[in-house]
Amino acid sequence: MTLAKQNLAFDAQHIWHPYTNLKHPSPVFGVESAEGVYLNLSNGQQVIDGMSSWWSTIHGYNHPVLNEAIQSQIQKMSHVMFGGLTHQPAIDLSQKLIEMTAPELDCVFLADSGSVSVEVALKMALQYWYSLGETNKNKFLTIKNGYHGDTFGAMSVCDPENGMHTMFQGVMPEHIFVSSPTCVNDQDWQDRDIQEFRTSVQANHKNIAAVILEPIVQGTGGMRFYCPEYLRQVRTLCDQYDVLLILDEIATGFGRTGTLFAYEQAQISPDILCVGKALTGGYMSLAATLCTRKIADTVSDFEDGNLMHGPTFMGNPLACAVANASLDILLESDWKSKVQQIETQLIKELTPCKPLTSVSDVRVKGAIGVIELNEPVDMYKVQPRLVELGVWIRPFGKLLYIMPPYIIEEGELTQLTNAMGILAKEL
Q: Of the listed 147, 226, 263, 406, which one is catalytic?
């Protein structure tokens, strides 16, 4: 057995990968290096990454500017506690986030993962109402098919039936769920599309601290797209019934849907915003929770005024430094045209898969391409087949989808869409 095979054998026996079974491990492929949109596997193969390492490496791998940001910062300090101390990378990053998001979002909490940013958002909302003496407002309203993370607070606002956390029901707090929106285009909007949500807010607003949603695109809960009008209606109802609005843009933020943030397509702004994933260009784990000055002041004016959260690696200088460089690359590039080009190509090359007997639906939004199949895929067979076709695509359930780096070239994207089409025909 070669060294590479020995290592993979050890991995299969001892190391848990996301959402996997150690007794019957799914296929795992070793990666030796990565460059641009390519992963160089330990078996000598080179594959095009269609997943942006779970939607984060928007500029591709081994980017010289991001490398330099890391190398430069590590000469100064790799980490320092954020309790009682601060540093320029965190200050610069917070300024950038405030400048690029809605004007109402004025305060920043630098978290260390997307799930933690959601936990912080939920705490902010609860502490806001607690500070106002509204202790009865301790529930969250959300839509089904949503996903907000794997920690317990985040799990409690994920889909309670079709999500990944059903076994934890009865342990987590119980919140309020309504059907997810089905209207995809504003021109098809009818008042009935918001009726269930409106009824729930009307009936429960005295107990609802906040609504939490993934705007425009529901990610891991099913790669579902919905129209901006739904989001506008949600904002109006939150204002009418005195409920906060939390938007989870961990997956959609930084250009993925065609606007810098998905909420811009509805021309609204949230009270609390969660961002992560692409924030550092996929280099390090970092996320942020932004809120309005009103929320920050209300929390701060009550008793000792402390927001009760503080991760050890909060505001990590290395992560902040590379995030600053990543945001500069994004904002200085013609990212909007590039995402539009990706969208146009995805529509052209994936639409022919619609008539296939294995296919339930094909949908595209920005740099997101989805083939929804009629049956769940067998990862033990599908993953090696995709690698054989020269691509790295990680399906889940019935979904065969890609969210490639923005730097992908036309031919490289075609290789991804061809592989998706081949697989859909073979299933």
A: 147
Fold classification of 3-62+334-426 is Aspartate Aminotransferase, domain 1 (3.90.1150)
Instruction: Give the residue from 240, 302, 219, 232 showing the smallest Cα distance to 270.
Output: 232
60 Rama class: left (phi>0) / alpha (psi -120 to 50) / beta: left
Which is catalytic among the residues 49, 159, 248, 271?
A: 248
- In the chain, residues under CATH classification 3.40.640.10 are 76-332
> Is 206 marked active-site?
no
Strands of 391-392's sheet, edge to edge?
31-35, 38-41, 46-49, 391-392
- pTM value is 0.96
Q: Which two tokens stand for residue 167?
A: 């076994």
Tens of pLDDT, residue by residue over 157-187, are 988 776 666 777 777 788 999 999 999 999 9
406 is catalytic: no
User: Active-site residue among 19, 23, 191, 304?
Assistant: 19
- Is 137 catalytic? The answer is no
**CATH code 3.90.1150.10 region(s) in the chain:** 3-62+334-426
Catalytic residue among 123, 137, 144, 277: 277
* 277 classed as catalytic: yes
Q: Which CATH class is domain 76-332?
A: alpha beta
